[in-house]
Specification:
This protein has 211 residues and is of the alpha/beta class. The chain starts with a strand and ends with a helix.
Length: 211
Amino acid sequence: MKHGLALHTSSPALGLAIGSNAEDVRCQTWDLGRDTSNYLHPYLRDFMRPHTWQDLGWIAVANGPGGFTGTRLGAVTARTLGQQLNLPVFAISSLAAVAWQSPQVGLLAVSMPAQRGEVFAAVYSISNDDRNLQAILPETVFSAPDWEIELAQYQPTHHHVIPQSANLSDTVVGVLALARMAFDRGERPHWSTALPFYGQHPVINSKIGKD
């Protein structure tokens, strides 16, 4: 059975996960800060063992929101692997991974600080039976007052989830799980469609597809 590989570099920590199904998952995180770009490739090489690149059937990457440099690093690495190995690449929202790993079900509003006092936010619905996740409001950048107005529309039926740490690498398991569910549904996204979400940088968002 082919394995999936997930990368999370959108926060100051690096997260890697690999698995062939929900019961067969191995993950590891490293708090690397600004050194992620220096250590990602050797850590990834060592993490892959005893598997080989030929064992992979798909790649997943947290595509933000998050730090600009880290998010771009993960996206470029995943796209390169997908291109070289001819594998589909799933770009999974960092906020969706947070929602999926939350113990709550039902309507979940997820938010985290952005720059200039703004907020990255999204709203998801997670079913109780199979934890299927559906985006009600995809990741968006709000001013703090606008997010409060938006959030009020979902009260009192929602759960508001705010990550307790800026390091989101442990949600790499959620990135892997959400990608696996999409893969099992028959989705096979081309590596070129795995674009980072920066929020405040729409011009760069459009350029990375031309790398």
